[in-house]
Amino acid sequence: MLSSETNEKITRVGPGTPGGELMRRYWYPVATSADLMEPGAKAVRLLGEDFTLFRDKSNNIGLIGQRCPHRRVNLRLGIPEVEGLRCPYHGWMFDTKGQCLEMPAENADSTFASRVQIDSYPVEELGGLIFGYIGPLPAPELPKWSLFVQPNAFRMIGSTFLNANWVQCQENSIDQTHLEWDHGHWGLYALEKLGITDERRWRGFRRAKRHHAKIAFELFEYGILKFRLQEGEDEATSQGWNHGHPLVFPNMVHIGQRGEQEFQIRVTIDDTHTWHLVYHIYEPGADIKVPEQYPVPVFDVPVVDLPEWILPQDLIVWEEQDEIMDRSQEKLAESDKGLILYRRLLEEQIDTVRDGGDPINVFREPHDRLHLEIEDYGDMSTYVPGDALYGNTGTLPGDAIYQVDQLFTKARDAAIARKGNG
Ligand code: FES
Ligand SMILES: [Fe+2]
Q1: Ligand 1 pocket: which of 54, 73, 94 to mutate (most atoms <8 Å of CB)?
Q2: CA spacing 20 to 30 A to 107: which of 19, 57, 171, 243?
């Protein structure tokens, strides 16, 4: 349980709030590359503020203020030009730095345009996502977390807009035991109610419902490592107990295993809305060359009341905790100790920013890749076609599923052939 004041402190993200100040030290996805493939503009809301994102005809990307400084029209309706975005109302044109370049209605000798600017923000495209930064300058480096830059990987991005504060979404990543019920018992209940008889689906949820014999947590340089040992697993060999999964502060979790990994990213739109992204990568291994992807395919992950797939089982319970969960009314038990650790870290980092410091995961040095450890279950020779895609969301895009399955099947055959040869 938290006091109402502390709940406000960690959940509110608007400008000038303690939590908002912390969250303004990080880069966020503001769109997928697929959202803005062609020159054009798009409305973006981040941390309770509104912006316009655009791509011009020279493929430059800009993140600027929401409205035209002339008569305040929303620039999401703008016309992309060779260099910049033009307001639809009177044609004022702005470049990616927010500088006004043209005011068509003014006399040719007017210099007014050179004195008009709109706010602009750093923006970068990486791994099929467009990231923006709206905090104090100088901006830190855009973190190159492993999966965004993983070579020879096939990617897919699942997207959901949620009516929920970001903290309750992120707290799920440190809440180990929800696996047993949310993804185990409740999943089995959904399969039964919906009359789904596919044995692979039942197997997945039966596995999830195994009781947690032990849970443990450890702070590490990027956040918190969480470990679980479930009934029937051996302490010496359990990947979940010996490797664990990293919660990457403040708003990401890394799950899966080598070959099939994902980030879940909670993008804070405002106090009561979160853009949830699941960033999948599939790695068939060095034997197989994965074709270039542009853009990375994006699919919608639905929010439904009786979810028969894993991620929607999480999404719906976060919404059902209320728009901003009232932590002054909760009752935490012993198995919730991870939540306490995460909240403590969150509060501590808010205080670090208040005192003028950089919180963790703000990187000032250029880097190629930030490595995160993950579980590893061996080579591809035991791969069963279709398995990598099993249990995900049920809404994966058909073409992309087919491509992943083809890549993995080829990788399995190559691994079997290599074993046969040697
Ligand atoms: S309102 Fe944008 S140019 Fe006039
Ligand atoms: Fe979950």
Answers
A1: 73
A2: 57
Q: Is 416 exposed, middle or buried (0-12, 13-18, 19+ CB in 10 A)?
A: middle
Question: Which residue bears the tokens 């470049």?
Answer: 95
CB contact at 8 A, 306 and 193 = yes
In single-letter form, the type of residue at position 48 comes to G
Residues 6+ apart with CB under 8 A from 109: none
Ligand 1: residue of 81, 90, 116 to mutate (most ligand atoms within 8 A of CB) is 90
Q: Give, for ligand 1, the residue of 71, 74, 85, 116 to mutate: max count of ligand atoms closer than 8 Å to Cβ.
A: 71
For ion ligand 2, residues whose CB falls within 5 Å = 314
Q: Closest Cα to atom 4, ligand 1: which residue?
A: 90
Is there an atom of ligand 1 within 6 Å of 71 CB?
yes
Instruction: Express each pLDDT in 257-309 by its tens digit.
Output: 888 899 999 999 999 999 999 999 999 888 889 999 999 999 999 999 999 88
- Closest ligand to Cα 183: 2
| Domains 28-132 and 146-421 agree in fold | no
What's domain 28-132's superfamily in CATH?
Answer: Rieske [2Fe-2S] iron-sulphur domain (2.102.10.10)
Report the distance separating Cα 137 and Cα 121, nearest Å.
9
Spatial CA neighbour of 32 closest among 126, 144, 121: 126
Assigned CATH class of 146-421: alpha beta
306-350 pLDDT per residue, tens: 998 899 999 999 999 999 999 999 999 999 999 999 999 999 999
Using alpha carbons, select from 388, 410, 166 the residue that is nearest to residue 262.
388
Domain locations in the chain?
28-132, 146-421
Sign of the C-alpha dihedral computed for residues 180, 326, 263 and 395 taken in this order: positive
The residue type found at 46 is: L
CB atoms within 10 A of CB 286: 10
Which residue's CA lies nearest to atom 1 of ligand 1?
71
The residues near 402 (Cβ < 8 Å, ≥ 6 apart) are none
